[in-house]
Amino acid sequence: MNSDIGDWSSYLEGVSSEIYFLDLLNFLNQQEKLSKIMYPPRDTWLKALEYSSFANTKVIILGQDPYHGEGQAEGLSFSVPVGIKIPPSLKNIYKELAMDLSINTPEHGHLVPWAKQGVLLLNSVLTVEKSTPASHANQGWEVFTDYLISLLSDKKQHLVFLLWGAYAGNKSKLIDDTKHLILQAPHPSPFSAHKGFFGCKHFSKANNYLASTHQQEIDWQL
To answer: Which residues are catalytic?
Structure first.
C-alpha cells in the first residue's frame, strides 16, 4: 500500500495482502508487461487519498473510471491537470457551479484545491487503458473503493456524498443515510446533464449541510 496516503494507512492495513488486491496488482503488472499504456501514472493511483486525508474528508464526489486520453487522468475524479482541455462533464459541473453559487468559470480543470479542503475525488476504478473506457472494470478496484466508501460511512459522521449518474447512485447502498447526506442527480455528461443535473444545487446544499453540522464549508471557487 502506498506510504503517502497518511492516516488512511491505519484503516487499510492488510488490504494489500488480500487475494482480490493481489489479483488486481497481478492484472496491472501483466498489462504493463504487455506494453499496454495505462492512465493515470502508477504513482498517482491513490492521489485522491493523498490530498484528502481520512480525518479531513467531508465531501465525496464519486466518479466511474479515469479519463482515458493522453495526459488527462491525474488520480482525482473529474479533474485534469492545468493546461489540459476541460472535459465536457467538468464543463457542465462548472456551469452548475455558476448557476448555483455564481462562481466564475475556471479556465482549467485542476480540482486539487477542492481535494485539499476535504473533497475526496474518488473514482470507483482507479486505472484505465489508453483510449479504452472501462477496460479495467471488474478487476478488483471496485472492491477496494467500495471498502473506502463503507469505511467512511461507518467510521465518520455528517459527510456529504455527491452521487452523479446511475453508476455512482448504486453506491448509496454502502452509505448510512441516517448519519450522512446523500445527494443524487443525473450525470453531468452532455448526454444527461439536462435531465436534472443542471439545477440540482448540490454545491450549495453540501455547504448548507456542512454549516448545519458545524463544519467548514467548501470554497468551490478555483
So the answer is: 65
